[in-house]
Design goal:
CATH class of the largest domain: Alpha Beta
Strand content: 5-15%
CATH architecture of the largest domain: 3-Layer(aba) Sandwich
Order of helices and strands: EHEHEHEEHHHHHHHHHH
CATH superfamily of the largest domain: Glutaredoxin
Radius of gyration: 25 Å
Strand order of the largest sheet: 1-3-2-4-5
C-alpha cells in the first residue's frame, strides 16, 4: 500500500497501471467506513500476492485528484488498468464482495486464502471512533462465523457498551460451545451476571441487602457470589474478583468451584489484546491481570 499525492500520482498510478492494475482507495481521516475497509483492502492486497497494487489518496488533502475522478462520497475505490479507470465501487463492502470485484477485473492468478479470526490490533480502527470499531468487529464476525475469537471480540464490545440484547443475539449461535471454550464460557458468565443483577432490582438496595447478609454470616457464599455478580454487571472487575477470593479463601470447592471458574472468566474478559513484539522479546503483561493471577494461584494452591 502506498500513499499517493499529486506529486507522485503520475509515477505510482498512471505509469504503474501500465504493468499492474492499480486500485485507488479514496479516503479521509474522519471517515468511519474508511477505517473499516482500509485494513481489509490491505489484507486482500496481500492475499492476491502481487496481482494488483493498492494506493491510498486522502481526498481532503488531494482535492484536485478527487475532483478529477468525480469522487462524491468516500470511501470510493477506483481500479485503473493501462492508465484508464475500468471499474469501481463505493462504501465499505464485505470481503466477499471485494474479492468478487477484483476477480471480475484482474488477470488470472493465485489468491492466498488466510483465515479471518478476530480483528488484529494493528488493523483496528482508531480508538476515538466507536462506530468504526463496532462495524469492524461486526464484519469480522460475519466473515467468519465459526471463529470464537471474532465472536468474543464483538460480543465483548457490545456488553461493554451496555447493548445486552444485541450481545445475547450475537452470542446465541456459539452458546452450545460455551462449556468447552474458555472465552465463550467467560461471555456466558458475564451475561448471567448481568441477568442476575437485573433480577436483583435497584443496584444500591441489592448491594445493601447482600452486605447485610454477609455481615450476619461471613460464610454466606450465596450472598458473596450475588454481590460479585452485581460487581461484574457494573464492570467493577477487581472488586468482583476480591469478593470471589473471599469465597475461595474459605471454601475452594463451594458450588462446584463456581467462584474459581467465575474468577478465571473475569481474567479472560479483562485481559488486553495481544500485541506484536520483535523476535526474542517477551510480550508485556497487564499488571492487573498478572497480580490477580498470582493471587488466585496463591489461594488455590494454599
Amino acid at each position: 500500500m502506498i500513499n499517493v499525492t499529486a506529486e507522485n500520482f503520475e509515477a505510482e498510478v498512471i505509469q504503474a497501471s501500465a504493468t499492474i492494475p492499480v486500485l485507488i482507495d479514496f479516503w479521509a481521516p474522519w471517515c468511519g467506513p474508511c477505517k473499516v475497509i482500509g485494513p481489509l483492502l490491505e489484507k486482500v492486497e496481500k492475499d492476491y500476492a502481487g496481482r494488483f497494487k493498492l494506493v491510498k489518496i486522502d481526498s481532503d488533502q488531494e482535492q484536485e485528484l478527487s475532483q478529477a475522478f468525480g469522487i462524491r462520497s468516500i470511501p470510493t475505490c477506483v481500479l485503473l488498468i493501462d492508465g484508464k479507470p475500468v471499474d469501481g465501487f463505493m462504501g465499505a463492502v464485505p470481503e466477499g464482495q471485494l474479492k468478487a470485484f477484483l476477480d471480475k477485473n484482474l488477470p488470472e492468478g493465485d489468491v492466498l486464502e488466510a483465515e479471518v479470526t478476530g480483528m488484529a490490533l494493528d488493523d483496528a480502527p482508531a480508538e476515538d471512533d466507536p462506530a468504526a470499531i463496532h462495524e469492524a468487529l461486526h464484519q469480522a464476525m460475519l466473515k467468519n462465523p465459526d471463529s470464537d475469537d471474532a465472536r468474543f471480540d464483538y460480543v465483548k464490545l457490545l456488553l461493554q457498551g451496555g447493548h445486552t440484547a444485541e450481545a445475547k443475539a450475537a452470542f446465541a449461535p456459539a452458546a452450545p460451545k460455551a462449556a468447552q471454550v474458555r472465552r465463550l464460557d467467560a461471555l456466558q458468565r458475564w451475561i448471567s451476571a448481568i441477568d442476575a443483577a437485573a433480577a436483583a432490582g435497584e443496584p444500591g438496595a441489592a448491594v445493601a441487602g447482600f452486605d447485610a447478609k454477609i455481615a450476619a454470616n461471613k460464610r454466606d457464599f450465596d450472598a458473596r457470589f450475588g454481590r460479585a455478580q452485581l460487581l461484574m454487571a457494573s464492570q467493577s472487575w477487581t472488586a468482583a474478583m476480591d469478593e470471589l477470593l473471599d469465597i475461595l479463601m474459605r471454601d475452594k470447592s463451594w458450588s462446584e468451584e463456581l467462584a474459581r471458574k467465575t474468577f478465571i472468566a473475569i481474567l479472560e474478559i479483562i485481559e488486553p489484546p495481544k500485541v506484536k513484539v520483535a523476535d526474542g522479546q517477551i510480550p508485556p503483561v497487564d499488571p492487573v491481570v498478572a497480580t490477580y493471577r498470582r493471587r488466585l494461584s496463591s489461594v488455590v494452591l494454599s
